[in-house]
Amino acid sequence: MPRRSLVAAVTGATVLALVTATTPAMAQPAASPGAPAAAQCSDEPRDLPVHEFTDHSELGIELARIERVSGGAVDVTEVGRSNRGREVWAARVGTGPKAVLITSEIHGNEKTGTDAILRLLDYLGTSDSPKAKRWRSELTVVAIPKMNPDGAELDRRGNDMTWDEVTARFPQLRGSEPAWNYYTTPRQGDDYSQRPGFDVNRDYNPDLSYEPKPEDFPGTSADTGWYITPESRIVRDVYKGLVAEFGEVDTYVDLHHQGACYVMPDDPSRFVTMSISGRFVDDPATTPGFEQYADTYDLEYSKQLNVAVYNALQGRANNNPLFGNITLYPQDTNLPGTGLGSFALNGSGAVLFEVRGQTQTLGQKYRTQLTQTVYVGLDGMLSSIASGQVENLDPAVYDTIPPRGPSVADAERRSLQVLEP
Ligand SMILES: [Zn+2]
User: Fold this and answer.
1) From the CA of 270, how far away is ligand 1's center (Å)?
2) Domains of the chain (ranges plus CATH)?
3) Gap from CA of 305 to ligand 1 centroid (Å)
4) pTM summary value
5) How many other C-beta atoms are found inside a 10 Å radius of the C-beta of residue 17?
6) Which of 87, 112, 204, 286 lies at a CB distance of 3.0 to 4.6 Å from 371, suitable for a disulfide?
7) 370 in helix, strand or coil?
8) Cα(250) to centroid(ligand 1), Å
């Protein structure tokens, strides 16, 4: 038996002993001694510490430090304010012709991306290595870490905004039903009844000039969003600025977390460290209402970018077996209201990172390893874009990345709690 399984089995037995001692009626059967460690996993929300992650005020301090030590290589600007008035910053580095936009924490309980971005900016801003120099000369990297700071400070998925605040800003919506992605009830252990909010990652629209129209509400997950949240508007405006400057945004990466208990398709004892994807919407050429995006949409390039991420992690799997547990995120989603969906339709190569476990299930437990996973993936992708090698990667390799296996969490709770991407 692998050591990990033994530890997990012993822990399970200890918990059982405690439960039995206090509330015998609730005792559950112990996992069999031979059961794999993964069987111990749960997506049940818990209140776990997150102080090791970077909070909003620390982010401001750290970005200012990086800007200072980079001697001007990294330029940090406030690009807007969240609904509760917190600064949203963009950090820009490099002078190259290919624009790469990276965002993190659109869901405030998905925090490793922000730490990975800080590490990336520190390296890009200060390193004299040939690699860093090549990145700076070939790429213009713009990062918006913690783009939903209100959700991040509350350590929850949604932002902090009421429908009344939306209609105050957009009076034409006063008679409309609230958007379908408006949260007013508990999810992921957070009670939105007193502090409602929106899933910002359903508020995008591929029409970058779209303004909210009453007839488009409440909408559905297969519809486009509306740019009713300040946070999506900020990212949209940065994206539009880059399109105006570069002609297109070469690549857009959005950094997320998924459920804690997905396992590899061929081995239920190995948890999925990260799932990746380049496909978020149905083919616009054959989807009514989306035909105008058929010429710009470039799924093949998104696949190549994902292959670069995958190869980089596989190449490091000998040093760290966790980097070997990478899978393809489900490919049957149609979410044009996500940032990735909307920007992919506008022609950007699109890459989704989904590392293991949001804060309500794993807290900061695997912070270092998961941040490292994101970093290695970004590093491989940026190297491949900067060298031009990405163009030579076979997009068909994308379809050979193993699919995400099942979640081994309790089925009832999984259906209630897991929200992605
Ligand atoms: Zn997410």
Assistant:
1) 22
2) 3-40 (no CATH), 56-157+200-417 (3.40.630.10)
3) 20
4) 0.90
5) 12
6) 112
7) helix
8) 22
